[in-house]
Amino acid sequence: QVQLLESGPGLVKPSETLLLTCSVSGGSINTGRYYWSWIRQPAGKELEWIGRIFATGSTKYNPSLKSRFIIAVDTSKNQFSLRVTSVTPADTAVYYCAREHYDFSNWFDPWGQGILVTVSS
Amino acid sequence: EIVMTQSPATLSVSPGERATLTCRASQTISNSLAWYQQKPGQAPRLLIYAASTRATGVPARFSGSGSGAEFTLTISSLQSEDFAVYYCQQYNNRPPWTFGQGTKVEMK
To answer: Is residue B93 pLDDT above 90, yes or no?
Structure first.
């Protein structure tokens, strides 16, 4: 079955750029039947949907977030990524990648294990 | 943005008892609702989608109901492995998708 795995730095300094990668195994990211999403969870807080990408590269972001978040896809590597510019301590969270089911069925399954990112000098 | 409100924040239940969790949407969302279970240090796991359809492999003791703006997740007879935090998520019409703040089900 499809599995997702996040990778990236666990510690980032304020004002720097964070790059996270989600590797998809057990299935192609290019099926055309799913979106590929990023979701984050600050410690003790609720889940926040950041945005998603389709295999074609088409993206959608949470408008409540500033335009510091960029999602990209590399179908040749079966990966997608999240870039966050000018990070602040408020970006400290566990970041999850997840497969988002297609229109009118937009639940998330499966999820990656999550990666804790701490923003601190 | 649709705001999802879950209640109670914490539910204390004894093993074998029934647990009822509620999720309310700030506007009607038809049946566009999913429920997730999250255990400490783990990613959320999909339990229910379309308000009442169990995901693959989810035990029958989990059931979802509701439509419109009020939804319920019921665990008919709590097992030890069910103590966790439960989140609802709406996916009505168009993004952003939003989650509730969670209900922690703890052992009484």
So the answer is: no
